[in-house]
Fold this protein.
Amino acid sequence: MNRQQRRKRGQERRFRVEAVARQSPDLHKLAQVFLGMAVARAEEERRPAETPPTPSGASEGGELESN
């Protein structure tokens, strides 16, 4: 599937999300959402500080050494 086909396929889809009012909110699910968002944000903030691992056998120039 090429890029144009994927784009066309995505344009054909139309989704709609509606909020439903409840008498008592599901606090367990709400807590899971907030914790998931906090963990994702912490992981994003940590990633730039880490240096990406280099593949084994890579030289300083970025080329792989042949054996």
